Amino acid sequence: MGTPDDRYDVIVIGVGGMGSATTAHLARRGLDVLGLERYDIPHTSGSSHGITRIIRRAYYEHPSYIPLVERAYELWDDLAERTGRDVIHRTGSIDAGAEDDIVFEGSLESCERYDIPHEVLTSREVTERFPGYQLPEDHLAVYQPDGGFVVPEQAIVAHVEQAQAAGGEIRARERVDGWTDTADGSVRVETDRGTYEAAKLVLAAGAWNAKFADALEGLAVPERQVLAWFQPETPSRFEPDQFPVWNLSVPEGRFYGLPIYDVPGMKLGRYHHRDERVDPDDYETDPQPEDERILREFAENYFPEGAGPTMRLATCMFTNSPDEHFILDTLPDYPQVVVGAGFSGHGFKFASAIGEVLADLATESETEHSIEMFSLERFDGG
């Protein structure tokens, strides 16, 4: 690698949801930080786009996420107040499934353990309150009034503006080619435009993270995902004040969706859409007829009034860890390199708080947040 053009306290690779939040937290702490992004800010080539992203306090994935999502709510509200951008909207949330299904059972457990205000509703009660829903008769739902959505593009821009206002430097359209450690324990980063050094490095490159760290090979695996927006027959029933965000477990799989916002159509997707592991630099980015068929058949069964004409289809990527829990740690052989990876399709809601965690690890090598379950060590010997 060449001679460094500039020296920083911290370099962040990737300025999407997690990277933008990390640069903002670092810059506001007075650090000299550089954020490097190979695409635009914001962009649609990775995982941090899609107009709306669910946020919910009820958390069936694991109750240990609750303290982190509580902090995320605080930080999203703070970001909105500081910037004047509407980055978070509260619509309520529905987590529904059979009584013994993890989506319902796990959400209820998290609410009860952490005293989160909620209601348990039958399928009929859900439809009476929110007519856009037509869930199976045997389904139960956890309704949590504080659920809603984060606006990802606005959130990224807000965090970037906060970083820049605090003296941080952001460079878009600059591809990172690689990094190495140096004799003094620093990190040198080579891009297609220059060479930079820093005391610490944060990998927040989403689906590209494994290309920058051998330790993430097989632990942060990109997967192709497709989303659809269908125009409802009665749009008013699918507006944010009438249609909570939702997670639904049915025989066809686990699906999620959001109300109409900013563009026409109810938004929905299927977790692990077609189980397609991909190379983020070489995969089918155009939605295909089969992608639309999967989502339309689901909508016709469970949200029939929302299954009107297709308004929009879009691809993105999940980056899955083996257990679908996050990876928040330093690299085993490089303690100066911090990693935020493996968000497995449910990470964006936490971005404001994960930025704080990654900034903690980069500056203090520890954090007050409980992140033991997100350690790389859990995969040792597995």
Strand-helix topology:
Blueprint: E1 6-13, H1 17-28, E2 33-36, E3 53-55, H2 66-83, E4 88-90, E5 93-97, H3 102-113, E6 119-122, H4 123-129, E7 140-144, E8 148-150, H5 152-165, E9 169-171, E10 176-181, E11 187-191, E12 195-203, E13 221-230, E14 245-250, E15 253-258, E16 266-270, H6 289-302, E17 310-320, E18 327-331, E19 334-341, H7 351-364
Helix pairs in contact: 1-5, 1-7, 2-5, 2-7
Relevant terms:
382 residues; alpha+beta; FAD/NAD(P)-binding domain; D-Amino Acid Oxidase, Chain A, domain 2; 8-stranded mixed sheet; 19 strands; 24% helix
Description:
The strands form three sheets. Strands 1, 2, 9, 10, 11, 12, 18 and 19 form an eight-stranded mixed sheet that branches. Strands 6-7-5-14-15-16-13-17 form an eight-stranded mixed sheet. Strand 18 and strand 19 form a beta hairpin. The longest helix has 18 residues. The protein is an alpha+beta fold and 382 residues long. The protein is globular and about 65 Å long. Helix 2 packs across helix 7. The protein has two domains: 167 residues, FAD/NAD(P)-binding domain (3-Layer(bba) Sandwich), CATH 3.50.50; 198 residues, D-Amino Acid Oxidase, subunit A, domain 2 (D-Amino Acid Oxidase, Chain A, domain 2), CATH 3.30.9.
